[in-house]
Amino acid sequence: MNNIQWIEGESLKVMEKQEESKFDFILLDSVNDKDYIFEEFKLALKLIKLGGIILIDDLGVGVDNAIPDKSQYGAVKGVKVFNVLKENNLLKHLKLHQSRKGVQGIFINIQEELKQFNF
């Protein structure tokens, strides 16, 4: 496909240099650290277009919103993102998807409410 651009490097540094509201899809799959992924997520919200998708691989939350995700022991990447969204009544923007490997969090149809929220 000629419309996909892979950008490699230390994620936070690379993301800080990108143009805001440029991306349709962002995959967060760096380290299994909920605080690091939370920082990536905050940057990703600035970079994603309205209506875009942010995917966190190995989320750490089960399809029943259980933490830890029993289908993938040890995964915690999106736990802080999930908890902050839950605390702020923003889970309506989240769809949990169960794959054969575990749960990934898919943030669907990013709207102004989520992009403008002050994390």
Q: Any chance you could write out the topology, listing elements then pairs?
A:
Layout lengths: L10 H6 L6 E6 L5 H14 E9 L22 H9 L6 E5 L4 E5 L4 H4 L4
Describe it for me?
With 119 residues, this protein is of the alpha+beta class. The protein has a single domain (20-115), classed as 2-Layer Sandwich (Translation Initiation Factor IF3), CATH 3.30.110. It has four helices and four strands, in the order H-E-H-E-H-E-E-H. Strands 1-2-4-3 form a four-stranded mixed beta sheet, covered by helices on one side. The radius of gyration is 14 Å and the shape is globular. The relative contact order is 0.18.
Structural class: alpha+beta
Percentage of β-strand residues: 15-25%
Mean pLDDT: 89
CATH class: Alpha Beta
Order of helices and strands: HEHEHEEH
Instruction: State the separation between the terminal residues, measured CA to CA.
Output: 35 Å
The total beta strand count reads: 4
Q: Looking across the biggest beta sheet, what order are the strands in?
A: 1-2-4-3
CATH architecture: 2-Layer Sandwich
Query: What can be said about the biggest beta sheet?
Result: 4 strands, mixed
Low-confidence segments, ≥5 residues, pLDDT <50? none
Subunit arrangement of the protein:
single chain
Please tell me what the overall shape is.
globular
Rounded radius of gyration (Å): 14 Å
Task: Report the helical percentage.
Answer: 25-40%
**What is the count of structural domains?**
1
Tally of contiguous helical segments: 4
CATH topology: Translation Initiation Factor IF3
